[in-house]
Amino acid sequence: MTHSVQELLDTFDRLPDAEKSEAVTAILRRVQSLAFDLPSDHELVLNAEQIFLDLDRREAADGNA
Question: What is the spatial distance between Cα 53 and Cα 5, in angstroms, rounded to a whole number?
Answer without folding.
Answer: 21
